[in-house]
Amino acid sequence: MLKFSAGILRPRKIMTTPTISPLSTALKSKIESRQAKLAVIGMGYVGLPLALLYTEQKFGVTGFDIDKRKVDTLNAGGSYIFRITPTEIQTARAGGLKATSNYAQISEMDAIIICVPTPLNEYHEPDLSFITNTAHAIAPHLRAGQLVVLESTTYPGTTEEVLVPILEGENKGGLKAGRSGNGSEKTFYVAFSPEREDPGNTSVARRDIPKVVGGLDPQASELAAALYGSIFNRVVRVSSPAAAEMTKLLENIYRCVNIALVNELKLLSLRMGLDIWEVIDAASTKPFGFQPFYPGPGLGGHCIPVDPFYLSWKAKEWDFRTRFIELAGEINVGMPYHVISSVAGALNRQKKALNGAKVLILGVAYKRDIDDLRESPALTIIELLQKEGANVSYNDPYFPMIGKGRKYDLQMKCASLDNLDQYDCVLIVTDHSDYDYRKIVKDAQLVVDSRNATKGIEDPKIVRC
Ligand SMILES: NC(=O)c1ccc[n+]([C@@H]2O[C@H](COP(=O)([O-])OP(=O)(O)OC[C@H]3O[C@@H](n4cnc5c(N)ncnc54)[C@H](O)[C@@H]3O)[C@@H](O)[C@H]2O)c1
Fold first, then answer.
1. Nearest by Cα to 372 from 80, 114, 119
2. C-alpha span between 299 and 234 (Å, rounded)
């Protein structure tokens, strides 16, 4: 049924003088004295670093994950994320970090932070199954006075319309989420707080990234602000979980649309014989009103290619079409195809066909200097090249092999960078900083560069696309 007027998502005013429940006072003082026991659900790229931040601040943290391999690795003091060392895990374990798959332990926790995946299904629609499965698993162990915070990126309304009904409907004590700001001894608290991690970015300390929180009621906001205030320097409160959910989507849609804009302008610049990178650098000297975005071989990662479609899906319920999101999606999805035609054109100019050509892809991670392959444009590019009959190899210092993922099954091994001249084309897809681009250009027969990684190197072998 279409929604034409504001219902559950109607913005609410923050109540300034609520009656404070003894339950929330008790939890707040436990948080402030670091006595609160924390559960982080989903020990992935978001949950594990968050758990480490809390153990650094002397909280007792239990990480929950359904992936037994992750639980066992953490409990053995190991790491499965490249930028987190085993030493960091061992230090955290000495500080009380534990990992488990046993949801019965939820009842011992004071605050529960959910960081599970929110992908799209095969029809490009939100797949909330990880959130709903988590909610079903938590609910039977829920107790009064606990705080539950959802961090997974999702459309506005998920916390109130999806998470809360399961928690309320399936707990054993008839507990209700605090809504009025008053609370009772049968209340638990709920908030949404989006994650703002930027993998690979070492210029901003995690602590210095302001944390947005939106509680279901003022007490939930107060508790979530206390919880995150213990690890972040600034907490920004908004009036509702939905406002916090929408904040995250605005941030990611802003990136998605601006990347699409610059990708489109790159295609035009190539046709006009202009160097878009030079133009962006020049425009970036404007001290106000311009933020640079850079073109590339296509979008990657768990967030930017996925999150905008959460909003466009939800918008349909309100009889609304999010045209910027759709157009940006169309342009960004087309970029790997542009890369393929650039490789084919470059080979053609050397009187070679793509069919049968040996192509080495440099960099398969979705962005520079990280070990994350999710939604990487390199995966699409490999598949498209193979479809055209190319003989494809890859090199990436972060991936000794590429096996099977949710949408691919490549079974490829990382090739060495020796004898680069055996390849008809070296295609730069991810501009890792460790590569010696001068040497690569010197050794290769032909270099197609989709990232401007060869900036400053002049050689007729280079084709920038
Ligand atoms: N990775 C990022 O840079 C980033 C940045 C901002 C926001 N986010 C958002 O954060 C959320 C988590 O992303 P991520 O990158 O950490 O994902 P991830 O895939 O790295 O980790 C998620 C973890 O959750 C576990 N899990 C799934 N279902 C579970 C369940 N029912 N119970 C316990 N554990 C379960 C998985 O096994 C996995 O270990 C997503 O919504 C994502 O959009 C991610």
1. 80
2. 30
Distance separating alpha carbons of residues 95 and 55, to the nearest angstrom: 6
For every residue of 379-398, DSSP letters joined together read HHHHHHHHHTT-EEEEE-TT
The interaxial angle of helices 47-56 and 86-94, nearest 10 deg, is: 50
* pTM score of the predicted model: 0.92
DSSP 137-158: HHGGG--TT-EEEE-S---TTH
Rounded Cα distance between 48 and 28, Å, is 23
State the maximum Cα–Cα separation within the chain, in Å, rounded to a whole number: 79
* Amino acid sitting at position 364: V
Q: Taking CB atoms and a 6 Å cutoff, what residues make up the pocket around ligand 1?
A: 41-47, 64-67, 70, 115-118, 130, 133-134, 137, 151-153, 195, 197, 199, 302-303
**Region 191-205: what's the mean pLDDT?**
89
What distance in Å separates the CA atoms of residue 187 and residue 173, rounded to the nearest whole number? 10
For residue 451, the number of C-alpha atoms closer than 13 Å in the C-beta half-sphere is 23
CB 214 within 8 A of CB 221: yes
Phi, psi of 126, rounded to the nearest 5 degrees: -55, 135
Structure token pair of residue 133:
């499965």
Length, in residues, of the chain: 465
C-alpha closest to that of 63 among 24, 113, 110: 113
- Each residue of 284-320: b (16+ CB within 10 Å) or e? eeeeeeeeebebbbbbbbbbbbbbbbbbbbbeeeeee
Ligand 1, atom 33, residue with closest C-alpha: 65
- Where is 449: in which H helix or E strand? strand 447-449
In the annotation, is 303 catalytic?
yes
Residue 185: pLDDT band with limits 50, 70, 90: confident
Q: What is the mean pLDDT of residues 7-14?
A: 52
